[in-house]
Write a structure and sequence with these properties.
The protein is of the alpha/beta class. The protein has helices spanning about 30-35, 35-45, 80-90, 110-115, 175-190, 225-230, 235-245, 250, 265-270, 305-315, 335-340, 345-360, 390-400, 405-415, 455, 460-475, 475-480, and strands at about 10-15, 45-50, 55, 65-70, 95-100, 130, 140, 150-155, 155-160, 195-200, 225, 255, 280, 320-325, 365, 485-490, 495-505, 505-515, 520, 525-535, 545, 550-555. The chain has 3 domains: about 10-100 and about 175-465, Glycosidases (TIM Barrel, Alpha-Beta Barrel), CATH 3.20.20.80; about 110-160, Alpha-Beta Complex (Oligo-1,6-glucosidase, domain 2); about 485-555, Immunoglobulin-like (Sandwich). Bound molecules: 6-O-alpha-D-glucopyranosyl-D-fructose and calcium ion (CA).
């Protein structure tokens, strides 16, 4: 496989609103990120993906952009961003921006002009349809945040517009070449500024199956999941090829797509040698409990499920391209709370989970706070306590499925995106050291136990373990194996064991006992050197390896 500059990089996702507040207004900002650049550089981060910081009414926390060329004053100024890019460069850190172009904000000038003149130039940037009250809508698609994806066009009682996300996020009409040209111009404007690339938001939604039509109703609301339409929408490749040609490729930029539901046959198109993107996220494990959010009692993702799923995902792209690996992001609950039973959450088990995903083929992404083992909220008492625009629908859907109010709150506690959005826990002091005033979203009450300050100088902390994992992945001695080496799952018939080889010029084994109880295993090769483990005194001289609960070992084998 052709070697690319981003293959051996470690990425870190910042959710700016919750990272660090520099001016005491309770909202994280760009200067707060600059303050923490040395911290990130010391951790070993090479790429920072910034969730949106463009001008936005923040209906969906910045994923509703009202000006692609300016910074929201709450996050700072363009000078702050230029400073961040320059300070990043000094430290060898590239900035990856969020590219949100399936939709913009209803407060974007394009949409305002579309409302003034729906038949005009900007009207054609959106999906606007004629509509008479009482008539059926053009289609019955359910928006991702609940309810119909059609809304009355402001100022026009006889027109409606399409929004597959929030009603404040009108969909951009990618069928219109003039819109596409505007998008590419904007992308290149940012790349000219010297950013390293883009994370591409919700991109799979840009191709609609037209003309609009209904799909089978799948819930009591009389609507149909957008996925049903997306399944039938072909031709996205033409848009994505054009975008790659017109933008990313010219700059050798890093691009990572938020892609779902792709077919096997499409993988080379998405992430192959001349793929639309450099990489795409592996969401395979996030999908495991998604459909069961509204099953009473929820479901538990078992270690076997977890292992089989990640192994399959990586085998599927073998020889084609690289996935970007995550255990969480700003749309998901915290990985440690999702994949490890609450009663078994500990520094040790968190390190094990980190170690499993980090040494898989692909590019590891760390979501802010993951490196200190931040967890889900332990309790949610009411909807008002939280913020995300997706919460109301999550709650109402639970009620629609027959949950009690208390059970619906438990669904939020487990699945709300706010779990990952609570402020970064820097210290055990007021507001977890995130801000000098009341943060915009509650701080997880566990900040006194889980915070960076208490972990920085502790060589046994989750933070220190992440630092060691990064150092190992970047050690030139192991690069050929850990970055470019083959990926060979082994001992997959042993329950709750996650074990694989990465083989290049050196043979590396990764062993994780994903359970509380001890087991013994036998490898088909002999360990010569332990490179990293989450406990001391691991005896590897025996042919039989005795693993304790949640043991994690990376070793060189002969
Ligand atoms: O989190 C979800 C629903 O609650 C996902 O379906 C999510 O909307 C999907 O992964 C797309 O996510 C991206 O685009 C959204 C934004 O809300 C997310 O934060 C973003 O990651 C719309 O821009
Ligand atoms: Ca601030």
């Amino acid at each position: 496989m052709e070697r690319k500059w981003w293959h051996n990089k470690v990425a870190y996702q910042i959710y700016p609103k919750s990272f660090k507040d520099s001016n005491g207004d309770g909202i994280g900002d760009i200067q707060g990120i600059i303050e923490k650049l040395d911290y990130l550089s010391d951790l070993g981060v090479d790429i920072i993906w910034l969730s949106p910081i463009y001008c936005s009414p923040l209906a969906d926390q910045g994923y509703d952009i009202s000006d692609y060329y300016n910074i929201d004053p709450r996050f700072g100024t363009m000078d702050d961003l230029d400073e961040l890019i320059a300070e990043g460069k000094k430290r060898g850190i590239g900035i990856v921006m969020d590219l949100v172009v399936n939709h913009c904000s209803d407060e974007h000038i394009w949409f305002k002009k579309a409302c003034e003149d729906p038949e005009g130039h900007y009207g054609k940037f959106f999906y606007i349809e004629d509509y008479k009250d009482g008539e059926p809508l053009p289609c019955n698609w359910r928006s991702y945040f609940g309810g119909s994806c059609w809304e009355k066009l402001p100022g026009h009682d006889d027109k409606i517009y399409l929004h597959v996300f929030h009603k404040k996020q009108p969909d951009l009409n990618w069928e219109n070449p003039l819109l596409r040209k505007e998008v590419y111009k904007m992308i290149n404007w940012w790349l000219d500024k010297g950013i390293a690339g883009f994370r591409i938001d919700a991109i799979i939604n840009i191709k609609k199956k037209l003309p609009f039509k209904n799909y089978p109703v799948d819930r009591d609301d009389g609507l149909s999941d957008i996925g049903n339409m997306l399944e039938e929408a072909t031709g996205i490749g033409e848009f994505l090829t054009e975008m790659a040609e017109e933008t990313f490729r010219k700059y050798d930029a890093f691009s990572v797509g938020e892609v779902f539901n792709e077919k096997d046959s499409e993988l080379p198109l998405f992430i192959g040698k001349r793929g639309y993107f450099s990489s795409m996220f592996d969401f395979s494990t996030s999908g495991l409990d998604l459909n069961d959010r509204f099953t009473k009692g929820g479901i538990t993702i078992t270690p076997n499920d977890y292992r089989d799923t990640i192994f399959k995902a990586h085998k599927r792209v073998e020889g084609i391209g690289y996935l970007s690996n995550i255990i969480e992001n700003h749309d998901e609950p915290r990985g440690v709370s999702r994949y490890i039973p609450a009663s078994e959450l500990s520094s040790k088990s968190k390190k094990m989970l980190a170690g499993i995903y980090f040494l898989l083929p692909g590019i590891p992404f760390i979501y802010q706070g993951q490196e200190i083992g931040m967890e889900n909220l332990a309790q949610v008492d009411s909807l008002d306590q939280l913020d995300d625009c997706a919460n109301t629908d999550l709650y109402n859907t639970a009620i629609e499925f027959g949950f009690t109010e208390k059970e619906a709150l438990e669904v939020l506690r487990k699945h709300s995106r706010d779990n990952a959005r609570t402020p970064f826990q820097w210290t055990g002091n007021t507001n977890a050291g995130f801000s000098t005033s009341q943060p915009w979203l509650l701080v997880n009450p566990n900040y006194k136990e889980i915070n960076l300050e208490s972990q920085l100088s502790d060589s046994d902390s989750v933070y220190s373990f992440y630092k060691k994992l990064i150092a190992l992945r970047k050690n030139p001695e192991y690069e050929d194996s850990l970055i470019y080496g083959s990926f060979e799952p082994i001992l997959t018939d042993v329950d709750n064991l996650v074990c694989y080889y990465r083989k290049g010029t050196k043979k590396i084994v990764v062993i994780a006992n994903f359970q509380n109880k001890g087991i013994s295993i036998k490898l088909d090769s002999k360990i010569s050197k332990v490179l990293l483990a989450n406990r001391d005194n691991f005896d590897y001289t025996n042919e039989k390896l005795n693993l304790l609960g949640y043991d994690y070992i990376v070793a060189e084998v002969l």
